[in-house]
Design a protein that fits this description.
heterodimer, A: alpha+beta, OB fold (Dihydrolipoamide Acetyltransferase, E2P), B: alpha+beta, Rossmann fold, 2 domains, 10 helices
Chain lengths: ~375, ~375
């Protein structure tokens, strides 16, 4: 049972600032993903929580207890890292059993727990083998099993399924989430893969250059990114982000313009959010819209709609149950995710209609979302 | 820049000692086509490209380029350009020097202004014309990738061979480059073979997809064909994410109608399919159902009102991926997956209803895994 609280946490390696004063509360039993590109500080943060890395300044609490000076072994954390660190002379069974035996768990209980976790992680067939005989993906699952078999307060997992092939990774993603829902223990999971973070976490912490960019549920991170970095980093195919400008017309219409095109937004909240900015009309802005939130119109049925963006089809990629279509509007390319039954061909003239409920506007200077 | 070529491979075998890398490969590629070669690692994709390029000798069989047998020709005389996953650019040279390099071969006899003209044309096409004076070491992964492509394009070869050229780039960049490469290839019109282990690249880019496994060509078809009419269960589950659900099943007769029975559902069989499956009566089959063909609801009524037969299952886990969620379902000890785009919030262990159109079922032989309907 542990809440984990980070207060103004810093990590410097010489002059390099890896983690720059982050504050975070992780609830007891929560599955939290630290998401970001390499070098964003996610692993340094995890290693400080584990006690493997000295804290430069700031505090880490497990519940009400300051753990800054506690040895890793005294924190009751279970860890699985990208590097497997298995014991080569021990069988897979003995590797997984090791932390249980060290904790003097009775042997019948050891056997039961090892066999159970091995079954979930699909390791039953290799329990008697030695690590060196296994593939990287297998070894990584053994390392993960060794962490999950323990009865710890906090589980710290750093890219624990990164070396698995796609199919096994997808299966393990579901299994890990399922294990968490049964254990209800605090889990902190580090990944650079936005799909993993969205799929598994209760709460995602997006990091870049040592700072937290956003904390939120998968839905908040995907549908309401707070800045350009989060918007661009999360989502596949990636969000369309287009340079634009904007003005308020009358009192109630926001006109967003790029090249020779305009979109008129009348949604009250969006107009209000844009109106509250000083010198809106002078700002360099970015319009953001995700590929599934654009409709391609092939007929002239909606020519009355002044929000149509005329263009032509650049490429069509059939991907089985859906298609990704690139549409060129002026000099800008829009990625659109559409039904598998879509029949357009390259060169064909079409119009795009953006779903305004999912339209985003960013200030390029502050990189913050206006809406 | 349009030079057309075609490729024909007849009965190609490649062995490394006792290991068979390619087993009787036959393939025809038409002028200007982009053919993707899809397979897991170890399938023989790279061996295939290398034997075409002449980097590896064929063990037996024939390779024709433009109707001409090239088995005995050294790589340099085959007029082929190859891009690998690792680009092997010259890091201390500028983009211009890297692009110009293949043109400086004494065999080419191009003068300086011709070289400059070609390099600039290619750079413009790839939108790297503003980077010509930069050192390659200063470029991003995506930019380097374009330089590598450019170096291939300036040569104006008969055939492009691309070996997982964007596999190591991040997912976002891959999405953009896929479309860009496809557009570019159509624009230039040079016949291209492109290997990948990512089914999205194979389907998204290819005019034709070749599915390769363990050195054997399992299927050649349009993206639509390999997705909708997989030759076997391997192809079915290689293409699609999450992969096709496979159930052990049995064909049973209820009255004069054929049904299929699995641990997850017992469903009537589509009449057209039943006709073909008549001989499988009382026999075991492997049943395939794509996650995107599974329809989910909290209520059976909403499914049944649309004419579906509905089945119960328990929610095992839900993975929200933005607009789409992947829902894992549990029934009779089986876990299977659905792609869900609706608004309902499913809870773990909750009982829900699923349905599908009977014509969306696939039937495979339980032993050979051959598709019984194609």
């Amino acid at each position: 049972m542990a809440r984990v609280i980070l207060k103004n946490l810093w990590k410097k390696y010489g002059k390099v600032e890896a983690v720059k004063g982050i504050n975070l509360e992780i609830e007891d039993g929560e599955f939290v993903a630290f998401l970001g590109p390499s070098g964003c500080g996610k692993t340094s943060t995890l290693r400080m929580i584990a006690g493997l890395e000295k804290i430069t300044s700031g505090e880490i609490y497990f519940n009400d207890r300051l753990v800054n000076n506690l040895e890793p072994g005294d924190r009751n954390v279970a860890m699985a890292f990208e590097a497997y660190a298995l014991y080569p002379p021990m069988s897979v069974f003995d590797n997984i059993a090791f932390p249980l035996r060290a904790a003097k768990v009775p042997e019948t209980e050891v056997k039961r727990r090892v066999e159970r976790i091995a079954e979930i992680l699909e390791l039953t067939d290799v329990l008697n083998q030695y690590p060196r005989a296994l593939s990287g993906g297998h070894q990584q699952r053994v390392s993960l099993a060794r962490a999950l078999v323990r009865d710890a307060d906090v589980y710290l997992l750093d890219e624990p399924i990164s070396h698995l092939d796609t199919k096994m990774r997808n299966r393990m993603r579901a299994e890990l989430k399922r294990i968490h829902s049964e254990l209800r223990k605090t889990m902190i999971y580090v990944t650079h893969d936005q799909v993993e973070a969205l799929a598994m976490a209760d709460k995602i912490v997006v990091m870049n250059f040592g700072v937290i960019k956003q904390v939120g549920s998968p839905e908040e991170i995907y549908f309401k990114p707070r800045d350009l970095f989060v918007a661009d980093f999360v989502g596949e195919p990636p969000m369309n982000i287009i340079n634009c400008s904007a003005v308020i017309e009358g009192n109630s219409v926001l006109r967003i313009a790029f090249e020779s095109f305009s979109i008129f937004v009348e949604d009250h909240e969006k107009v209000a959010a844009a109106s509250s900015l000083r010198d809106l009309h002078l700002k360099r802005l970015s319009l953001g819209i995700r590929p599934p939130h654009i409709v391609i119109l092939q007929s002239n049925a909606e020519t009355q709609n002044k929000n149509l963006l005329p263009g032509y089809i650049h490429t069509v990629e059939p991907l089985g149950d859906y298609k990704v279509v690139q549409v060129k509007v002026g000099e800008n390319l829009f990625l659109v995710e559409t039904e598998a039954s879509f029949k357009g061909v390259p060169g064909e003239r079409v119009c795009l209609l953006l779903n305004q409920a999912h339209l985003h506007l960013f200030d390029q200077e502050s990189e913050k979302a206006i809406f | 820049m349009t030079i057309l070529a075609s490729l024909r491979i007849v009965g190609l075998w490649k062995k490394y000692g006792s290991i068979i890398a390619l087993r009787d490969v036959n393939l025809e590629v038409n002028d200007g086509e982009l053919v993707t070669i899809l397979g897991p690692s170890g399938a023989g994709k790279t061996s295939l490209l290398q034997t075409i390029a002449g980097v590896e000798e064929v063990t037996s069989g024939e390779v024709y380029i433009d109707g001409k047998l090239v088995n005995k020709l050294p790589p340099a005389e085959r007029d082929i350009a190859m891009v690998f996953e690792t680009y092997a650019l010259y890091p201390n040279k500028t983009v211009f020097e890297n692009l110009a390099f293949p043109l400086l071969s004494p065999l080419r006899k191009l003068n300086k202004s011709e070289v400059e003209k070609r390099v600039k044309a290619v750079a413009q096409l790839l939108q790297i014309d503003t980077l010509l004076d930069r050192n390659v070491a200063q470029l991003s992964g995506g930019q380097r990738q374009r330089v590598a492509l450019g170096r291939m394009l300036v040569r104006e070869p008969k055939l492009f061979l691309m070996d997982e050229p964007i596999a190591h780039l991040d997912a976002k960049l891959r999405h953009r480059l896929r479309g860009e490469l496809k557009h570019l290839q159509k624009h230039i019109g040079t016949t291209t073979l492109y290997t990948t282990h990512d089914y999205r690249e194979a389907l998204g880019m290819g005019d034709k997809v070749v599915v390769l496994n363990k050195g054997v060509v399992l299927q050649v078809g349009t993206p639509d064909e390999v997705y909708h009419k997989p030759k076997n269960a391997f192809v079915g589950s290689l293409i699609g994410d999450p992969p096709m659900n496979l159930f052990d099943g049995e064909i049973v007769a209820h009255g004069d109608k054929l049904w299929v029975q699995t641990k997850a559902f017992t469903s009537p069989i589509d009449e057209e399919q039943a006709h073909v499956l008549e001989s499988k009566r009382s026999k075991k089959v492997k049943v395939g159902l794509r996650p995107s063909d599974l329809i989910l609801s909290k209520e059976s009524k909403s499914l049944e009102s649309k004419g579906f037969r509905s089945y119960t299952a328990k929610i095992y886990v839900v993975e929200p991926l933005g607009v789409t969620s992947i829902v894992s379902l549990e029934k009779g000890g089986l876990i299977f997956q659905a792609k869900y785009k609706g608004e309902e919030k499913f809870l773990i262990d909750e009982t829900v209803y699923f349905a599908f159109r009977v014509e969306d079922l696939y039937f495979f032989d339980p032993l050979t895994e051959e598709n019984l309907l194609t």
